[in-house]
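Lab notes, practical 5.
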Amino acid sequence: MKEYLYSRNAVYEALRANRREIFAIEVADSAQEKGKLAEILNLARTRKIPVNKVPRAKLDKIHNNHQGIVAEAGAYPYSDLTEMLEYADAQNESPFILILDSLQDPQNFGTLLRTAEAVGAHGVVIPLARTVDVTPAVVNASSGASELMRISHANLSQTIDALKDNEVWVVGLDQNGADMEAGSRHLRGGLGLVVGSEGEGLHELVSKKCDILLKLPMKGRIESLNAAVAGSVALYLAYLSRD
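Output from the prediction step:
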């Protein structure tokens, strides 16, 4: 299945990651070949990917935020938990896995992927159903970080069991939990951080599977943060706490 990736960061990271096939690139005929666009074109030449100059109006029909470039690409290459754990081991690091429980919004998903990549998470696990997939909108929202991340479709309950079998502590982000603190013993070593959906939070079965539930301490008067913000803050707290 082919799809169209759009925006300069998304196309650049897809080329740099070299994990999926890029069949062709279309560039607006009015675009100036400098900066990120020049880097993209150099990568395309290196990989012998056809580059076509087209009217900007053609790209507008694909997406209005194309930034003068679109790439015709193959399907996203999903990974699995085993590959994530092997990658962590190869880096001589304890596993750091983000688990997303039925996230629905592409922007939130993209934001969390970007943060996960920034803090060095070894992979992201999403459910088999009732979730947003890695679509071009998610690739764009993540600024291409999705192309650098190992992302798996899996049964979350089985994933949590597998992590525990590998001595990974599973922490659920939940408003009913204890306060999360940087340096907490719960965030050290192997960690699976579970972030719930925008409206429902963690599903009951997933919540019960977690070793502990933690929440972000709130000093202000708002009741909660959205999933992307809360998850990103929790990822950074975990990153600052890692051994």
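Observations recorded by the TA: The two ends are 41 Å apart (CA to CA). DSSP finds nine helices and ten strands in the chain.
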